[in-house]
What we know:
Elements: E1 2-9, H1 15-34, E2 38-43, E3 49-55, H2 59-67, H3 70-73, E4 77-84
Antiparallel strand pairs: 1-3, 1-4, 2-3
Amino acid sequence: MKVFASGSLSAPPSPELQATVMPKEVPATLQLYLDGKIEQFWFRADKPGVIFLMEVASLDEARKLVGELPLAVGGHMVFELTPVGPLLPLGRLIGH
């Protein structure tokens, strides 16, 4: 299933904490990408945070994976998960 995971900073890390957390956050995020769990990722334009398009078996799996990222573990980022799929009413346009 596809899930949008919208992450927002809940407690911005201090510059000192950024120096210790970000060297772990970036490789952890890239590993999820290499594992095929994150298909695409973006920085948010509306506020500090990220948006991931994920391919997972369930919302529970998505929740577990983003919850294990260092910023989330440290209580600095929270995620809202939204399952998404094909726009099914479009099938009516082609007679399905």
